[in-house]
Amino acid sequence: MKSLLVLRHAKSDHPFGVNDFDRDLTERGRRDALRVGEVLLEQQLLPELIITSAACRARSTTECVISGASFAGSVKFTEELYEAGTTQILSVVQAVREDVSSVMVVGHNPGFWSVAHLFGGQIESFPT
User: Fold this and answer.
1) Cα–Cα distance between 80 and 96 in angstroms, integer?
2) What sign has the CA pseudo-torsion 13, 9, 109, 95?
């Protein structure tokens, strides 16, 4: 059975004069993303492939998760997941090679909440 992990980027900063794509994580966001990586490792949930939005906050989230998990798999950064809706996110997932059994996508709301809701049922909240 194939596995899909859906991760919203960690808490990001909103500095004046920085465009949305270039916003980075807060210190809390970095700590939280590192912990997510640790939990993935502890729970043996590491994917074979991580596909992440190319936006700074998603890239930084992925880098922290990789560090926390000691992840040695493949990582793909793509602009396709920036501001992606459900259809676009699913298209990115469906394009993954058949021999990859587990993938994590990292990106943004509201699209990522929609995908998590689609596969996970009722989700009240999907915070950073």
Assistant:
1) 14
2) positive
Q: Which amino acid type is present at position 20?
A: D
Distance in angstroms (rounded) separating the CA atoms of residues 67 and 37: 7
- SS3 sequence, 34-94? HHHHHHHHHCCCCCCEEEEECCHHHHHHHHHHHHHHCCCCEEEEEHHHCCCCHHHHHHHHH
What's the pLDDT band for 5 if we cut at 50, 70, 90? very high
Q: What is the mean pLDDT of residues 45-70?
A: 98
> Per 3-state DSSP, what percentage of the chain is helix, strand, and coil (rounded to 5)?
45, 20, 40
Note the pLDDT tens digit of each residue in 73-112: 999 999 999 999 999 999 999 999 999 999 999 999 999 9
CA–centroid distance for 70 within its chain = 16
What strands, in cross-sheet order, belong to the sheet with 102-107?
A: 3-8, 102-107, 49-53, 74-78
Show the tokens assigned to 11. Answer: 């808490």
The token pair at 64 is 């922290």
- Integer Cα distance of 61 and 13 in angstroms: 12
